[in-house]
Specification:
This protein is of the alpha+beta class and 135 residues long. The chain contains 3 helices and 4 strands.
Length: 135
Amino acid sequence: MHRVLHLVEPTRGNALSKTQHNATLVRALFRQLCAAVSHPSAAKGATLHCPADFGIVYLGTFYDGSRALAKFSYGASGCETVSLTAGGKTRTTMVIGAASAAAPKLRPDLAAVLGVPRLAIARPLTGARNAGATR
């Protein structure tokens, strides 16, 4: 018998905070989140392996003026997850199977709202670019 401890190495990545006022970008992201939770994955009882889970989670709130309309959580690495709370009800799903097919632009739309490259969504970003590179 073995006891194994898996630790995620801490990074020096910076927190990211963004307020997006472009209604077109915000609506597109909201549609993708709604589509994902409206088509929950059917992975109950299945064994899933979630490699490269860096613990990256995006939290956001959709507003109409100063009134909060909905809140979301998107676990972007490992086994992707989405949780959307609106009208006092929360719906959650893993972004696999039907949920993934229903929301194919989730990651690019989130990247557009944040103003970052699509590939930066699920990777921990550190201040050490090209660490170890020599010239």
